[in-house]
Amino acid sequence: MGVDNAALNPVSISAVADAPVVTVKKSRGYLLIWPAFLYLLAFLIVYPFGYNVYQSFFQYSMLTDTSLFVGLKNYIGLFTSMEYLNSIWVALIVAFFSLTIETLLGLSIALVLNQNFKGKVLARTLLILPLGTIPVINGYLFNILFFPDASVVDHIFNVLGFVQGPINWLQDPIKARIVIIAMDVWQWTSFMIIMIIAGLSSIPESYYELAQLDNMSSWKTFWRITLPKIKFPLALAMLIRAMDLLKFFDGVYALTKGGPQSATETVSYYIYRIGFKAFNVGYASAGSIIVWAIIWVMSFIVISKVFSAKEKAA
Amino acid sequence: MKKVQRESWGYKLFRLVFLLFFIAVFLLPIWWMIKTSVIARTDTVLYPPHYLPNGLEFDGYIRIWNDQGLPYLYFNTIRINIMAAVLALLLGVPAAYAASRYEFWGKEGGFMFTILSTRFLPPATALVPLFFLYKYLGLVDSIWGLVVAYAGLNLPIVVWVMRSFIDEIPMAMEESYMLDGHSRVTAFFKIILPLSAPGIAAMFMICNFLTWGEFLLAAVLTTTIPNQTLPIGAAQLEGDIGILWQQITAIGVLGAIPITLIIIFFQRYLVRGFSFGILK
After folding, report:
1. Using CA atoms, how far apart are residues A256 and A273, in angstroms rounded to an integer?
2. d(CA A126, CA A149)
3. Lower CB count within 10 Å: N or C terminus of chain A?
4. Interface touch A33/B4, C-beta < 8 Å
């Protein structure tokens, strides 16, 4: 088996042998974490991450194909660049609203789908279908749905009497952001629904029966029983979404290209534009390291708060 | 045991309206994708819009089959995602087992957090260095390059989710089996693997969901149709003569079919596999 070969890998064994290992077992099974770790180390950490750290201190010139050491100049430049700060702000706004709406919507839909009624499986299937679509194609699709002067959404809003005339979604900064958020919510609420239903379905029925014997209101049952029980899957799902949202790219690329002006230019798109269109590699690298640091801090707080509580509960 | 039913008619009506509303909202874009793929280009954006196609045209499908190398794109997307998920599971499940069953130096803050942190970099960032690394390894414009990259993207999620899954399996089950004279390795294959099979199956599906539509890495690391995937094929249809809506949505419809089939046939396992895994 590949597993055994990997565990016997001489490199990984010698690398750990000198480390002060505290182990409760005589077996060396803990070495099994090394194949995964080395894989990520090789393909993502050492080279890509190291390259970015290195390049973030240099200014690259395409003309001469040389790099000049500039110290912290790229970082200072970014922190005083309105474009960069704006792109971080946009990413944060999009991530905040998308995540909030996806969580609340996912939670309400999952709670309803967790009840017993006719057609439940059909409803659940239909509500998680958007998960199967391809993000970049959704960008083009939402382009049609919100097309200037011929938007389907405008038509529905007009028919329902919410507005009169065209809304021009993609020409207005605020409305364009709403479209971006709507697109993400549309596709990824399904992901939240699946994760939350999974959490809900493992709460034993007897808990609810006890709550009923106690005459607990459904509101109280939710806060006292349901929510504490699904806290970890919910936190994990939200963390996965938050990490991906802060790197939001595909939809922006296919739908707005960052416009109008730079209202929907997320930090991922900014890095792509600066690095690949303007070939300002040093700036793009420094910009990525900053994003990496932001997500690092966020994840660290979430994990140490939520998952250390999990260990205490165990 | 069945839950005691105490639902009023008012509530049942509310639930019906609530679900129908969201089903309608969720399905509208999907319907629009299907509809756009089978109408004439000139009918794509009309006001007021036609909610049903007036006449069927399969031009988009024929063109992507003939001009865009659809068979390649489709087959590549499927096999790259499956192989990447399998590779991530082969590396990730043993790692999750180690993290769940052993205490060792630097486990949480060192190994586990570093593994997760590989998902923190914006995708655009990894592109340039990965491209150079792949060029050196001869992996540029090869499906193997994408398999390796996608496995790397999935690995952190696999390790983290499978770890909490294995945490759920009582240690006593392995220990009593080992007391019967079996080794830890046999215990892993005979006890842990079968018990975590639902979680592994669910994880396999989630891996496919997460990388199925990956765009940026595939766009830079592959250059010719025989090695490209569906999202790249779609993005190439935005050109000088405008966006070729019919072809793009046709790729969207076909691309959604495999994942949709998984959702329809395996959602029970998805829910069951996960409910066991992510809870403590």
Report:
1. 13
2. 30
3. C
4. no
Which residues of chain A make contact with B91, given a CB cutoff of 8 A? 6, 35-36, 39
Indicate the helix (H) or strand (E) that contains A61: strand A58-61
Mean pLDDT per 10-residue run, chain A (314 residues)? 38 39 56 88 81 87 77 89 92 95 95 88 91 90 89 90 85 92 94 86 78 82 84 84 89 87 90 84 89 89 76 51
Q: Do A129 and B26 touch (CB under 8 A)?
A: yes
Q: Kindly tell me the burial class for residue A312, based on how many C-beta atoms sit within 10 Å of its own C-beta (0-12, 13-18, 19 or more).
A: exposed
Query: Which of B28, B251, B263 comes nearest A137 by C-beta?
Result: B251
User: What residue spans define the domains of chain A?
Assistant: 2-55, 81-313
A46, burial (CB in 10 Å: exposed 0-12, middle 13-18, buried 19+): middle
The Cα–Cα gap between A276 and A262 comes to 17
Which pLDDT tens digit goes with each residue over A171-221? 899 999 999 999 999 999 998 998 888 888 777 777 888 888 888 888 888
Distance to chain A for B60, nearest Cα, Å = 14
| B117 neighbors B48 (Cβ within 8 angstroms) | no
ipTM: 0.85
pLDDT < 70 positions in chain B? 1-6, 272-280
> Do the beta carbons of residue B196 and residue B169 sit within 8 Å?
yes
Restricting to A residues 252-271, those with a Cβ less than 8 Å away from any Cβ of B are 253-254, 267-269, 271
Ordered structural domains, chain B, with CATH: 1-57 (no CATH), 61-277 (1.10.3720.10)
Q: Which residue of B has its CA nearest to A127?
A: B23
- Assigned CATH for A81-313: 1.10.3720.10
Q: B262 to chain A: which residues are within 8 Å by CB?
A: 132
Distance CA A305, CA A117 (A): 37
Residues of A in contact with B99 (CB under 8 A): 33
| DSSP tally for chain A: helices H, then strands E | 17, 2
Tokens 């890998």 belong to residue: A9
**Residue A220 to chain B, least CA–CA distance (Å):** 16
Report the residue of B7, B33, B102 to disrupt the A interface, i.e. the one with the largest count of A CBs within 10 Å.
Answer: B102
The answer to whether B216 contacts A250, with C-beta atoms less than 8 Å apart, is: yes
Which residues 6+ apart lie within 8 Å of B74 measured at CB? B230, B254, B255
User: Where is B129: in which H helix or E strand?
Assistant: helix B123-137
Q: Is A225 at the interface with chain B, CB within 8 A?
A: no
